[in-house]
Amino acid sequence: MKKIILTMVAALAVTFAFAQKKGGSDDMRFGVRGGLDMISVKIAGGGSESLTGFYLGGFAEFAIADQFVLQPGISYHSASKTVNGFDIKANFLSVPVLVKYQVAEQFNLLAGPSLYYNTDSEAQDKTTFNLDLGASYDITENFLVEARYSIGLTGDSKVNHFLVGVGYKF
Known about the structure:
By secondary structure, the chain is mainly β. It contains 1 helix and 8 strands. A hairpin with a 4-residue loop joins strand 2 and strand 3. The protein is elongated and about 50 Å long.
């Protein structure tokens, strides 16, 4: 848990330091997002399991160039499923650090690493790294919809997330 907190603090410190260097309140925005999380777990040694739940979190946006925005965030993910009378639950904290590229006036592509911490796992390796790829569409200046696929890169069991949600920028 100490590694997760330290990693989150370091990521936020770097992004805020970058924002201070860039300057100007127009270059920085905050927001919230949430939606559906469809989780696929590929278990080492064979087999897989699917869970459906939700995610909810916050993010910041820092302009880094004309069409590029750095978008770090933090989210809570929860999913559950009953199989043969047994409840399977998965709760995660995630810290994505995405780069948003504006393709058209309201359409954006998203890509970047994300750190996931499994709060339910009893395994020693609770922290995994994923690669997020996706897109977002700005309905208005404040409201957006997004879809991302988060591909599990590390850990004994590969955990992938397909996220579909909405967001609001302040």
